[in-house]
Design a protein that fits this description.
Shape of chain A: globular
Oligomer: heterodimer
CATH topology of one domain in chain B: Elongation Factor Tu (Ef-tu), domain 3
Strand content of chain A: 15-25%
Largest sheet of chain A: 8 strands, parallel
Strand content of chain B: 25-35%
Strand order of the largest sheet of chain A: 9-8-7-4-3-16-15-10
Order of helices and strands of chain A: EEEEEEHEHEHHEHEEEEEHEHEHH
Distance between the termini of chain A: 31 Å
Helix content of chain A: 25-40%
Number of helices of chain A: 9
Order of helices and strands of chain B: EEHEEEEHEEHEHEEHEHEEEE
Bound molecules: flavin-adenine dinucleotide, flavin mononucleotide, FE2/S2 (inorganic) cluster
CATH architecture of chain A: Alpha-Beta Barrel
Largest interface: A-B, 54 and 51 residues
Structural class of chain A: alpha/beta
Helix content of chain B: 10-25%
CATH superfamily of chain A: Aldolase class I
Amino acid sequence: MDLTTRIGPLTLKNPFIAASGCFGYGVEYADVVDLASLGALVVKGLFLAPREGHPPPRIVETPSGMLNAIGLQGVGVHRFVEEHLPVLRGRHAVTIVNICGSSVEEYAELARILSDAEGVAALELNISCPNIKAGGIQFGCSLVGTRDVVEAVRRATRLPIIPKLTPNVTDVASFARAAEEAGADAVSLVNTFLAMAIDVETRRPKLSNVMGGLSGPAIRPIAVRMVYECRQLVSIPIIGMGGIASAADAIEFMLAGANAVQVGTANFVDPFIWTRLVDGLRAYMARHDVARAADLVGAVDLGAGARR
Amino acid sequence: MRNLSIQPKVGHDTRAPSILLHAGTGGGHRTRPVYWPHMPLDVGAAVIATTRLSGDYNILTLDAPAIAAAAAPGQFVMIRTSAGSDPLLRRPFSIFEIVRDARGTPAAITILNKRVGVGTSRLACAREGDRFDVLGPLGRPFTPAAPPAEAWLVAGGVGLAPFATLAEALASLGTSTTLFYGARRAGELFRTEIFERLGVRLALATEDGSRGDRGLITVPLDRALAARGAAPVRLYACGPTPMMRAVAERAAAHGLACEVSLEQTMGCGLGGCYSCVVRVRGADGAPHYVRSCINGPVMDAASLVWEGLGH
Ligand SMILES: Cc1cc2nc3c(=O)[nH]c(=O)nc-3n(C[C@H](O)[C@H](O)[C@H](O)COP(=O)(O)OP(=O)(O)OC[C@H]3O[C@@H](n4cnc5c(N)ncnc54)[C@H](O)[C@@H]3O)c2cc1C
Ligand SMILES: Cc1cc2nc3c(=O)[nH]c(=O)nc-3n(C[C@H](O)[C@H](O)[C@H](O)COP(=O)(O)O)c2cc1C
Ligand code: FES
């Protein structure tokens, strides 16, 4: 049974990837799970400089989901490269680094620094964080901005680049196409949905940042639809995510068109989810007589006369 | 422009072996690195017993021998209170007691549960035989004081929870120990016999004066501080933030070491989400957010920035 999946020049041993911001810098989990058993892991979003992030409360639960406004607290790229990357390398983790910039130049500079570092498999361009004022989403919400960031990073590195798209736009597929045309190796989607929750007793927002990003099972059907729409428009690999908590959920994304999937919020609930996902995918493939996981990609059966 | 030199503004922690986890942004502060002395386990634990203590409080005994065997004083577990997605996230609970079998082998843990919302209500209604996923042991434990130092434990309400394991560790070291324990009324002072059995002196306070001193726990604490002998005292506090802050201020005024056990909202308990942060003053004197799940929940009170601390 072949679980491998190709993301541009990368071949992953299975399609399951830990999502950015939901797996620390990977090192936190080095003693909890075998990092090398994951398809890949995406580290928390990094800027050039360290960042403090937002004051608590930073998360709040909502029906079948959660809002977060962490505000990209982080150690900065230099300390990541010096301190954490060697640990990840030592554990043979396939490491994808999520980068954020407040300017196109910052993305390019991050790409250069990380190209020189040993042990980076790919770059995920976070142009979709809904939680910070300057940076990220200002690019991800404009086709021109998306193209500019991808082109600048493309010029700066030979590493595979994977822009991460925001769902907070009307037509996410057009952003996937803009990314493809600008030279992206793959796209990942979705980042969180901009959302808000209010404590009716105190009339105060439940997050210090007022608004935050919604993740978890609540967003899954919308994310599946968005992956499906992108699959119709682009031919580069798609990494799908949003509320995946089981192998069946992951397979749903693959049938919609995802070549690989990321798991975020569900890792908080079950840090040992990874073996369950692999076992569940194997069982499904055996049951449906599928030899290669790649054969599931885009294999949704629309039946006769369905709307395409 | 190559090598734009935007360097981290503050110093680094000392380089650490791979399993050491560092504090959050900035580093350089004095919090010791934390690692998992035992790999955290996820145990589908059956409820062996539940004991109702009051309308809001109950004790849950969970069949989790591996966690019981690995736990250090003050560590916690993350419990999945629902198999579905309401609530979605696990909830953090101190390990209250380590239950041992006839041969003294750790067999189970107990949880002192106070009902405040949806997850704690599920644990309040749990029945024998129910199963919950229990992840742990997690977090940085207490540093037990050794003689000649004395240990003073200051608990408010459900803040008693991390102190039973600490009192055991102190008893095995032969450390003279006092528990200052405050609650709203006599009926909410629970399980003091656990501490008495270990030879711990009790100083109680209730807001309505129904047992011990009338008022906050600082009433007997201040009296004890005034009457203190020459032996060094190490303070430990767990309870509402204003109480812990009051203890920390007294520790600072008297030049005493003080550890507090924090109860921030936690999304994962493993350092993955950055939801549980508190501010700690770094070596540069500036406050930085650190994750209280892995750099705590037990933290050095002197390093904490209390302004803006929730709960
Ligand atoms: C390390 C650690 C150890 C803990 N040990 C214990 C323990 O031994 N026994 C125990 O009963 N509780 C303990 N808590 C607190 C417990 O985790 C919370 O009360 C629980 O998560 C609330 O969940 P809920 O679903 O019942 O409440 P929710 O429905 O999520 O919230 C209901 C209300 O409770 C408040 N609340 C939520 N989280 C907390 C919190 N962490 N502290 C105070 N209020 C909160 C909310 O603001 C809200 O107003 C501990 C917390 C931490 C971080
Ligand atoms: C606490 C938290 C922090 C996150 N941080 C980042 C981040 O730094 N960079 C990023 O691209 N996405 C971040 N995300 C978004 C996730 O990677 C993912 O896109 C989203 O949560 C949807 O997947 P899920 O439903 O499986 O969590 C974060 C999500 C959460 C819940
Ligand atoms: S609870 Fe997730 S980082 Fe502390």
